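Troubleshooting log. The previous structure file for this entry was overwritten by mistake, so regenerating from the original sequence record. Sequence copied from the archived sheet and checked twice against the printout by T.R.
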Amino acid sequence: MKLSVEQGAIVAVLLVTFGCGGGGSTKPKRDLTAYCAAIGDHMERRFAQMGKLDELVESAPRLRSDAATPNSEHVLFWQRVTTAAATLETGASLGTRCVTADPADPACVAFYRVRLALDAEGRLAELVTAQKNVRDGLRGTGKCALKSLPPALREQDPCEELKIRLSQGESKPEQLTEAELGWDAAEAILGRGPMPSNVGDVRDAIENALTHAAERRALIDYGIALLPLCIGTSAARSCDWLLEGLDQARPKELQSLLKAVGYALDGKGCTK
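Regenerated output below.
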């Protein structure tokens, strides 16, 4: 089996994190195949809810010419693209033991930035194609499916990995402050408030804030979708309320939701 550089790095981290490679590997607590298939199913549902991304592909060339001066159309474009990119990337990352994401193969690449969607011809169209291929790979079919994996990694509990990734997604105070500032700038351009006086480069601030929020929103969204596999259906239902307003939640709110999903993975579910 040949792993990409990025995937090889992730495998190495997982081996260290979970203490793999020695004697005493244990029987899987969860079915990794079912876990990854659930990620693929959720990815498909989320992309379906986003509407036709082909519309974004058509509008990107026009927006590219004046992207330095953001307007409401740019903000709405970035919101959709960052959501799509984060949904793809987060799903591929959570299912890294089931899917290959080879940077050398555009059909399976799972890592995008919104600026590339504007600055590089055809990049957004590649995202749409990669989503379908990665989704199928998570289900164990197609060219992006990872055909083999070291037994020590296959035997580890994916829900433990999910908990680690949730904790890694929590923002540092300075990151949160910057994301909130960029979020306010986006709101100002959409006519929902005043422009912050210390925002700096408006385009950078908005892009970074929307990317920051989209990545954490996707992590929360997948985490809630995977809770039934990790803590059981009954306990998972107590967390359904975390989805209320998730698509509109700003960075500080997402920080709290991220922690709540992490706590739920201890098996106790959620309380309001």
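The mean pLDDT is 84. Archived copy saved in two places this time.
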